[in-house]
């Protein structure tokens, strides 16, 4: 058992995957000597060489497009997109090529590619550095999308994403990189990747988050608990496929559901969850499914980002509102 | 135009050197860098290949006109560029085509009927890329040039360049057209290939037209000269001359296999047909231009050369014509026999590991379909 930050856990997971499989490559901007702008790939080039940890030209479509070619040659590239807002130059390659090659080729071409994206806000950054583009990728058949929320998951999930024969968009909550610290058992057997998980049991309301909002939900549950309200918190972990069985099981007990994400509300992951839970749990619901998220505006300047991001108070407010119907 | 400070701007009108080994009149000419000795068998082979892929193209166009295909992208006029590029390949080389490389597909042993399936709408890609070392057709313009570059980076990591072993050293070919040369992906592919010295040949068939837009809309300078700015050599070859295309491509492939990095080959040719069967080129180009290029026909010049030098007789030419007829007949027959995909089969193709939620969607749809057959049974009962 080692105490490590989320950043270190990702670094250790990448290292482990590279040790286990010589075909695993890491590529992206500044991932080599610098170790990435967030230091997630720190030391990997020194230990695995510049053939396996590849500093690329500054062109995201080029990074993802060449990774597709490397995958077709039998490699398992792990691509780093430096910031969420910089993924769009690669959007065509991701949506038209990465996502569709398996389908187009009737399964003859596999694209075991992981696209790591530091996502979400809260770091006081300039424009394009704090976004949550997950719904764009969840809406794309052929991709799988996961989000880690804590060091232990980060360590295991990155290895499992790399082992997947399907392309995976791997979302990392950047504001937790160096603040979230936890014990990670590197020798433990990894649990299933494509499952969401109850991280705090409760009986009155179900709160669902992923990535950076899981800790917000846990904070809200702690405060609500002091006020005598029992909140169950579920970490989705996988956004595509969605694993809603634990959510539905929970809602059948609590009758109330609030989904929390930093992404814009309209057509976000929360909207999909609301639709599916309504279909499956209609008679158990005591209240409509509520969502707390970023507003339907572009991400604001950093000085007011705390107002934009779902926080403890907005989550608790939504919890209160579920009792008002 | 000469700027007083910056000097002269390059102009499209500059007359670039065109590598040519066989003139439109069928005269064998020589070139200082790219000359090769061709055997009679090779020359007859080029004639046969070009004749058969032209037939393939004509037959597919006819199948579209008869409603058997939804669309066809014609290669008419580009036979020499494609056969020259295709026959220069070593077995281990890997090719990334656009959607018009029917001649290269032919050289890679892809059955023409497999090509039809895409245009008939029964599949998006119907051959195994690894069986033929020929990737699937890519419709998004230029996207495949990055895949080719990445594949070539993989070849480097496999140690399959510069070993001197002719069965191991591997080159990768990225096909694209003059229109694609404006795409960001193509330019990024140039940057990556140059940066890593990747063993890739950028083979551009400049057929002068991107649907209705003439080459001049894409570039102010001859395309092959762009390579220089990216840091690797470029050459323009007569794309209607199969001998020159073969010789130049072979040299570029060998450069790649030897570890000397990328090369840009601009095969200067002409799209004699429409962009696709839905296009109407009479709206945007002059018939005189087409007539002018007819005089540069890639097959006619080889036939003239073969006849003049006594390398073929009427019997050989009749055999090839027969073979073309048989190919046409087989394509017509087997096109009809291509099985339609099943609506429920698509769920199985999306992922290597099908998620439970997609399986549930499939089950729901199958139950919906089954509800109709139940009704039908009840009615008949």
Structure report:
- The complex is a heterodimer of chains A (325) and B (381).
- Chain A has 325 residues and is of the alpha/beta class.
- Chain A has 2 domains: 2-184, 3-Layer(aba) Sandwich (Rossmann fold), CATH 3.40.50.970; 197-322, Rossmann fold, CATH 3.40.50.
- Chain A has 12 helices and 14 strands.
- In chain A, the strands form 3 sheets. A 7-stranded mixed sheet of chain A has the order 3-2-4-5-7-6-12, sandwiched between helices.
- In chain A, helix 8 links the parallel strand 10 (205-209) and strand 11.
- The longest helix of chain A has 15 residues, at 6-20.
- The radius of gyration of chain A is 19 Å and the shape is globular.
- In chain A, 57% of the residues are buried.
- Chain B has a 5-stranded parallel sheet with strand order 3-4-5-9-8, with helices on both faces.
- Chain B has 2 domains: 13-337, Rossmann fold; 345-380.
- The termini of chain B are far apart.
- Chain B is α/β, with parallel strands linked by helices.
- At the A-B interface, helix 3, helix 4 and helix 5 of A face helix 6, helix 7 and helix 14 of B.
List the helices and strands and how they pair.
The complex is a heterodimer of chains A (325) and B (381).
Chain A: E1 2-5, H1 6-20, E2 24-28, H2 44-48, E3 53-55, H3 60-72, E4 76-80, H4 91-98, H5 101-104, E5 114-119, H6 134-138, E6 144-147, H7 151-163, E7 168-173, E8 181-184, E9 197-200, E10 205-209, H8 213-226, E11 231-235, E12 238-240, H9 245-254, E13 257-264, H10 269-281, E14 290-294, H11 305-308, H12 312-322
Parallel strand pairs in A: 2-3, 2-4, 4-5, 5-7, 6-7, 10-11, 10-13, 13-14
Antiparallel strand pairs in A: 1-8, 6-12, 9-11
Helix pairs in contact in A: 1-7, 3-4, 8-12
Chain B: E1 2-3, E2 7-8, H1 40-65, H2 79-87, E3 94-96, H3 102-107, H4 112-120, H5 129-132, H6 143-157, E4 172-177, H7 184-196, E5 200-206, E6 209-210, E7 213-214, H8 215-218, H9 226-230, E8 234-238, H10 242-257, E9 263-268, H11 287-294, H12 298-308, H13 314-337, H14 356-380
Parallel strand pairs in B: 3-4, 4-5, 5-9, 8-9
Antiparallel strand pairs in B: 1-2, 6-7
Helix pairs in contact in B: 1-2, 1-12, 1-13, 2-10, 6-7
């Amino acid at each position: 058992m080692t105490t490590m930050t989320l950043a270190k856990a990702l670094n250790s997971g990448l290292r482990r995957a590279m040790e286990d499989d010589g075909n695993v490559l890491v590529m992206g901007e500044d991932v080599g000597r610098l170790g990435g702008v967030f230091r997630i790939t720190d030391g990997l080039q020194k230990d695995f060489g510049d053939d396996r940890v590849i500093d690329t030209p500054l062109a995201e479509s080029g990074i993802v497009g060449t990774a597709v070619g490397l995958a077709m040659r039998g490699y398992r590239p792990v691509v780093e997109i430096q910031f969420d807002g910089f993924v769009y130059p690669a959007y065509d390659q991701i949506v038209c090529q990465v996502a569709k090659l398996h389908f187009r080729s009737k399964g003859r071409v596999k694209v075991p590619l992981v696209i790591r994206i530091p996502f979400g806000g809260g770091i006081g950054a300039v424009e394009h550095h704090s976004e949550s583009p997950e719904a764009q990728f969840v809406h794309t058949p052929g991709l799988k999308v996961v989000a880690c929320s804590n060091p232990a998951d980060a360590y295991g999930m990155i290895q499992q994403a790399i082992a997947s024969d399907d392309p995976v968009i791997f979302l990392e909550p950047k504001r937790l990189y160096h603040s979230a610290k936890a014990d990670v058992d590197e020798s433990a057997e990894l649990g299933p990747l494509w499952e969401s998980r109850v991280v705090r049991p409760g009986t009155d309301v179900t709160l669902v988050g992923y990535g950076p909002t899981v800790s917000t939900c846990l904070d809200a549950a702690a405060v609500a608990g002091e006020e005598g309200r029992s909140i169950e918190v579920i970490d989705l972990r996988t956004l595509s496929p969605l694993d809603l069985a634990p959510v539905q099981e929970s809602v059948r007990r609590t009758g109330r559901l609030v989904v929390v994400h930093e992404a814009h509300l309209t057509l976000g992951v929360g909207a999909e969850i609301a639709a599916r839970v309504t279909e499956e749990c209609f008679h158990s619901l005591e209240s409509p499914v509520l969502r707390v998220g970023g507003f339907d505006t572009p991400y604001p300047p950093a000085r007011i980002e705390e107002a934009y991001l779902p926080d403890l108070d907005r989550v608790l407010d939504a919890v209160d509102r579920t009792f008002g119907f | 135009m000469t700027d007083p400070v910056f000097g002269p701007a390059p102009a499209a009108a500059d007359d670039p050197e065109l590598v040519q080994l066989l003139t439109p009149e069928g005269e064998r000419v020589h070139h200082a860098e790219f000359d090769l000795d061709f055997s009679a068998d090779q020359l007859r082979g080029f004639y046969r290949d070009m004749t058969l892929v032209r037939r393939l193209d004509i037959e597919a166009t006819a199948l579209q006109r008869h409603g058997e295909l939804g669309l066809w992208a014609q290669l008419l006029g580009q036979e020499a560029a494609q056969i020259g590029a295709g026959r220069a390949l070593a077995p281990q080389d890997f090719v990334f085509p656009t959607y018009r490389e029917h001649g290269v597909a032919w050289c890679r042993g892809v059955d023409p009927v497999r090509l039809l399936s895409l245009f008939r709408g029964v599949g998006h890609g119907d051959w195994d890329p690894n069986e033929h070392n020929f990737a699937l057709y890519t419709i998004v313009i230029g996207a495949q040039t990055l895949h080719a570059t990445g594949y070539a980076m993989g070849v480097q990591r496999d140690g399959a360049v510069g070993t001197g072993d002719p069965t191991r050293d591997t080159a990768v070919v990225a096909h694209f057209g003059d229109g694609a040369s404006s795409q960001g992906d193509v330019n990024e592919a140039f940057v990556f290939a140059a940066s890593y010295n990747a063993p890739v040949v950028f083979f551009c068939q400049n057929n002068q037209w991107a649907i209705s837009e003439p080459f001049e809309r894409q570039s102010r300078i001859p395309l092959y000269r762009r390579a220089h700015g990216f840091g690797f050599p470029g050459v323009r070859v007569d794309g209607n001359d199969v001998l020159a295309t073969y010789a130049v491509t072979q040299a570029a492939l060998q450069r790649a296999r030897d570890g000397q990095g990328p090369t840009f080959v601009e095969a200067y040719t002409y799209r004699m047909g429409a962009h696709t069967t839905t296009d109407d080129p009479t709206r945007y180009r002059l018939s005189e231009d087409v007539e002018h290029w007819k005089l540069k026909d890639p097959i006619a010049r080889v036939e003239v050369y073969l006849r003049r030098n006594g390398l073929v007789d009427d019997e050989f030419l009749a055999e090839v014509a027969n073979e073309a007829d048989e190919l046409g007949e087989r394509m017509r027959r087997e096109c009809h026999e291509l099985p339609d995909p099943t609506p429920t089969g698509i769920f199985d193709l999306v992922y290597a590991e099908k998620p439970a939620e997609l399986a549930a969607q499939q089950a729901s749809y199958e139950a919906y379909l089954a509800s109709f057959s139940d009704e039908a049974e009840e009615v008949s009962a």
